[in-house]
Design brief:
By secondary structure, the protein is of the alpha/beta class. It contains 14 helices and 19 strands. A hairpin with a 2-residue loop joins β1 and β2.
Amino acid sequence: MRTDMYIGGKWTGGATTFPTHNPATGEVIAELPEATASDVDSAVEAASVAFASPEWAGLLPAQRARLLFKVADLLEQRAAEFARLETTDQGQPLAISGGFSVPNAVEHFRYYAGWVTKITGVTAPLSVPDVDYRTRREPLGVCALITPWNFPLMILVWKLAPALATGNTVVIKPAEQTPLSTLLLAEVLEQAGIPAGVVNVVTGGPEVGKALVRHPKVAKISFTGSTAVGREIAAEAGRALKKVSLELGGKAPSIIAADADLDAVVEGNLMSGLLNSGQVCAAATRFYVDRVRADEFAEKLAGAAGSMKLGSGLDETTQLGPVVSQEQLDQIDRYVGIGRSEGAQLLTGGERAGGELANGYFYRPTVFAGVAQDMRIAREEIFGPVLTVLPYDEPEELAARANDTEYGLAAYLWTRDIGAANRLAHQVKAGTVWINMPPLLDAGAAWGGMKASGMGREMGWEAIEAFTEVKSIWTNLA
């Protein structure tokens, strides 16, 4: 596959390069170009020219829809190739990349291809005589899509599909740890006939992202990543009055009532807490368990987590793959040390995997019991396979404890009392609440966070709104 940047419909290298590693082995997979400020300028200029070109702006809605349907078909045809590449570059097991990430990306292209012919304005009665008034939704222009390393392909498509469906052009900056599936998707877009300049990809580290955010011809920034970086982007966008969507960090609570089916709860929370080795912003990491069942839950959770098979994601028997990088591995280990020093009870894990896995970035799934609300491991995002169990005494305290965090991306509720679950769901400050189920996603369901977990929404009609603006048109009928 190509490992150059994709700018203005051409593949281009760079003066300097950086490596991307296989997290299962630590080995270098490929060297990629580090974009310069000039490369970013070229990519934005290409997107700006393409935005106004008849080859793109002049497409009828049905023609643009057909292009997106074709992208979905080509991606689906190469699904196995994309899954293996995603697993090799990011580490997630094939069951996730092939069973979740790639199919979800295909679904999003088809979903937004269907929206292209259905984006409408409104007419409204005004209290002004002899006037016809209507609105129309128009694309924003050049959009910068800055994507994370945990689900590189899938989260990119959450942004790219609605951006293209609404007629925008884009410059993509994938995470430097996991750029390969983005470049392979650029090949598919080219093959599908997306006009030159409509989609551009620049590779590199944080400075490349900063150059994109600050570029005067970028009208919109869509970013998924850490809250700290999101705050910087929001401040920069605010000064320039650019539109911005941010999906940021999380520290999701999972509330488990005394009447819950504990075996089903353990299975569901193991999935939500350790999916992709815990590198999920919506991962359940704070388990609030009724005190009468907290010890039983913690023991069962630790037993199930400790029995999971670690290994390369390319091994179909692997249940838990590596984390993405040495940097992430070190961060996880630091937090485990903090948990121990704070007095939490370590039930399983708490160390890097050795033996035949020693060269990769593997961390054993870790469960802490006896965790207090003010401990750092219960308050700060670790982004790894570290789970914390916090007992509670009275249901009335749950909403306040669940909301006692700067984050508000997701929450989980487990109880047979559906009325109580829905009342609590209304009280919890989170963008998404799952009741008696692990985290599932659908292109039609809005996704995003509250508080420090971000602003704006992806998926559903909300993404159409995020990549358009409303124009009012008045006509004098007199």
